[in-house]
Amino acid sequence: MKTSYETRYASSPKAVKKYDTEELREEFLIENLMQEDQLVLVYTHYDRYMAGSAVPVAGPIALETIDPLKSSYFLERREIGIINVGGDGTVEVDGEEFQLTLKDALYIGSGKKEVVFKSNDKNNPAKFYLNSAPAHTSLPTIKVSKADANKIELGSLETANHRTVNQMIIGGIVETCQLQMGMTELKTGSVWNTMPAHVHDRRMEIYYYLDIPQDQAVCHFMGEPQETRHIWMQNHQAVISPPWSIHSGSGTSNYTFIWGMAGENLDYGDMDVAKITELR
């Protein structure tokens, strides 16, 4: 098993205005997720948030600490959210096993020393998507199935943004320190997510796109509302959204994305909406 990680530093909106396509992708796009038999991690300097993946095929994958954390184990001062987007799998937390089927989630609080990812069938391996944030106290490990999620229907087919928001690791379902995660599924015929767009200067966010059909793509929009940029994205790629940036997208087909965020508060509705007619 191999662990690979990289660090992404924070960028100011003034600097991002001058980025070309390559620089935008280098700073904000996460392209290398879902590598077989690897723990892949990206440590960002936006609220010290991390995103990553684990795809166990040849054998189990342990959640190992990395040098930027300066910790004796990964969850010494952190919490983590996990959503399985592949075949059936198991997450072992200090000897206790949690079975995760497709689109099940698991929250693990700080203080858990050993976390191990396993696939039930190496020919149809689990694909664990990971988000992690600093934590100030230890909270219970909780599994949340898609059926357990708080579901919100938004948008309409007429505006091409009919979607179901599945709130999974969020207050009222799971107690966390600052991490929030969920999954938004677009209906057939709808392609726009998070439109009208918004920013929330109190929190950063990462979008992870999945269920994108072969030969299709999503155009993700970012930047200040009056200074937007775009990044073309493929299946199983993620994109970092700074607190000052909108985060929205439009696909050439419908798709799903997992959102994860952390920061100043746990108020899901704390957002500053940007009027569609005022976007630039």
What does this structure look like?
- This protein is mainly beta.
- It has a single domain, classed as Jelly Rolls (Sandwich).
- The chain is 4% helix and 45% strand.
- It has 2 helices and 24 strands.
- The chain has helices spanning 13-16, 21-28, and strands spanning 2-8, 29-30, 38-44, 50-54, 61-62, 78-84, 89-93, 96-100, 105-108, 115-119, 128-134, 142-144, 150-154, 163-169, 180-186, 192-193, 198-199, 203-210, 218-224, 227-233, 237-241, 246-251, 256-263, 272-273.
- The strands form 5 sheets. A 7-stranded mixed sheet has the order 1-3-4-11-6-9-12, with no helix packed on it. The chain has a 7-stranded antiparallel sheet with strand order 2-21-18-23-15-14-13. It has a 4-stranded antiparallel sheet with strand order 5-10-7-8, with no helix packed on it.
- The mean pLDDT is 97.
